Amino acid sequence: xxxSKNEKTVLDGNAFYELDLDCLSEKNRKLSEYETRKSExxxxxxxxxxxxxxx
Length: 55
Hints:
By secondary structure, the chain is of the alpha+beta class. It has one helix at residues 21-47; strands at residues 7-12, 15-20.
């Protein structure tokens, strides 16, 4: 089993996985951007409670 710089082999019990490290880092970057946007939206709702609730 050879590993390149962009791949990593992970053993888990009786199974092994080959991870694409470029794909994994891109996924983590997008997830952190999503969490940042989500937190900003949540903060805007807290700062501006108008427009929420039953009319």
